[in-house]
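Backbone shape codes:
===
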Amino acid sequence: MATEVWEELLRSVLRTMRRLGNLHHVTNLEWYLIGAFRYRFQRTLLKERQYRQKFLMTESIENLESLGRIQDWKPVQRLERELQVQQALKVMDPWTRRVWNYIKYGYSIKEIARRLDLTEFQVEFRYRRRLARLRDYFRRRGGTAA
């Protein structure tokens, strides 16, 4: 890596000298080259470090490798369940989604019925019927939503 940085620095200085005729702003060429090399090399090291952190993520790879040894699958099952819920919410009609959210936030069927200006029976019946349709939809599609 250091060799590549050094060669690129020399090419860059040569291009500048050809373009300007000389490096009149440089009093000591050796010090200039050493300083420029140090700066570019540090920048290259930083980029390489960022690349490794972003794309290689060794800790994540180790975690993935240990996934096969997990004894408690509850967090994985919770994640799968959450993904299924998100898929279901995408295909729900607005009324069912609204009732779903009311239930999710702890409203009783009686409170939901009051808010929607319906009887408790109507809310319960419509909600259960629409969830049954949603279940049938997922069974027909093999468990995934488009």
